[in-house]
Design a protein that fits this description.
Blueprint: E1 29-33, E2 36-40, H1 83-103, H2 113-126, E3 130-131, E4 144-147, E5 150-152, E6 166-175, E7 178-187, H3 193-211, H4 220-232, E8 236-237, E9 243-245, E10 252-256, E11 273-276, E12 279-281, E13 287-289, E14 296-298, E15 304-306, E16 309-313, E17 318-320
Antiparallel strand pairs: 1-2, 3-6, 4-6, 5-14, 6-7, 8-12, 9-10, 11-16, 12-15, 13-14, 16-17
Catalytic activity: Release of N-terminal amino acids, preferentially methionine, from peptides and arylamides
Binding site for substrate: 153, 251
Cofactor: Co(2+); Zn(2+); Mn(2+); Fe(2+)
């Protein structure tokens, strides 16, 4: 999960200040073009109250106030994690992937995304961890669930999942003082061939970006590899959504751009840990924000899909931590 902020700071944050707001058109209308057949989400459902966290759970600094004060400045160099920190990150990332994999079984026709949020929250808490999105800059839920044309920061609500939906689930956890972050896109019921192709292109685009990682390689190589693969297969990168460094903080440098529209200077070094998490769309790369200030949708109502791993740069290449 990443948070939108102005002027190209990290973590799925926008690179300009002018992302337009969208006027709601109708409630989950059917959309039929060369993008396929699916329901467009342009109306926000009812969001339940934030779920409670027991006192015995170790909290990140923002858990009670919603104010994030301990993340490194984006002008700082990316942190080099030591062996002890890397081991803690392995544990938090492995647990995040376990939660994500477990949540897949909840994605059934008729279930609500609030049901998914309840499942994720309870599973995280039951393992003495904290769901990182909860109250991060005021985010009200414990996971992000983004359906069809919602490309990220979908807030779980009372909308039922429909046959043919694509849903991206973004799980982040705070375990023993370190965050772990991963995401994947899933089919609900029977999804059309256009949607299945989008999912395949999105997942392979992520892996192309990961394969571009290694010591001495430029951060810009990641976006170049992702963009090339997506365009070769008739899709586009939503360039305003970025990856981020991660550790005891949820988001920090480096900023991982997933296209060539922007670039982050410098090279990767052993011990750096960051996410690669491109959002790939069937249509254009422009996005808008719904009235809750969180839900990000494509401007042309095309579907998006996202896959995410947290990776470690090693002496000889990279290691995927969210496995």
């Amino acid at each position: 999960m990443n948070i939108c902020k102005p002027l190209a700071v990290c973590g799925r944050w926008f690179v300009n200040k002018t992302t337009p707001q969208r006027l709601s058109k109708s409630l989950w209308t059917k959309f039929q073009t060369n993008f396929g057949v699916y329901d467009v989400v342009d109306h926000l459902g009812t969001v339940s109250d934030p779920r409670t966290v027991p006192e015995y759970v170790t909290l990140p600094s923002y858990a009670k106030t919603g104010v994030v004060v301990d993340e490194p400045d984006q002008n700082c160099p990316p942190e080099i994690q030591n062996k002890g920190q890397i081991e803690m990150l392995r544990q938090s990332c492995k647990f995040a992937k376990f939660v994500l994999d477990s949540a897949k079984a909840q994605l059934k026709v008729g279930a609500t995304t609030d049901d998914v949020d309840r499942f994720v929250h309870d599973l995280v808490i039951d393992n003495n961890a904290y769901p990182s999105p909860l109250n991060y800059n005021g985010f009200k839920k414990s996971v992000c669930t983004s359906i069809n044309n919602v490309v990220c920061h979908g807030v779980p609500d009372d909308r039922p999942l429909l046959n043919g939906d694509l849903i991206s689930v973004d799980v982040s956890v705070y375990l023993n003082g370190f965050h772990g972050d991963c995401a994947a896109t899933y089919c609900v019921g029977e999804v059309d061939d256009y949607g299945k192709k989008l999912m395949s292109v999105a997942e392979q685009s992520m892996y192309k970006g990961i394969e571009a990682c290694g010591p001495g390689k430029g951060f810009s190589d990641i976006g170049r590899a992702i963009e090339l693969y997506a365009r070769q297969h008739g899709h586009n990168v939503v360039s305003s959504i970025t990856g981020h460094g991660i550790g005891t903080y949820f988001h920090g440098p480096p900023v991982i751009f997933h296209s060539t529209l922007h670039s982050y200077p410098g090279i990767m070094k052993p011990g750096m840990v960051f996410t690669v998490e491109p959002v790939i769309s069937q249509g254009g790369s422009d996005v808008e924000i719904l009235e809750d200030g969180w839900t990000i949708v494509t401007a042309d109502d095309s579907r998006g899909a996202q896959f995410e791993h947290t990776i470690l740069i090693t002496d000889h290449g990279y290691d995927i931590l969210t496995v």
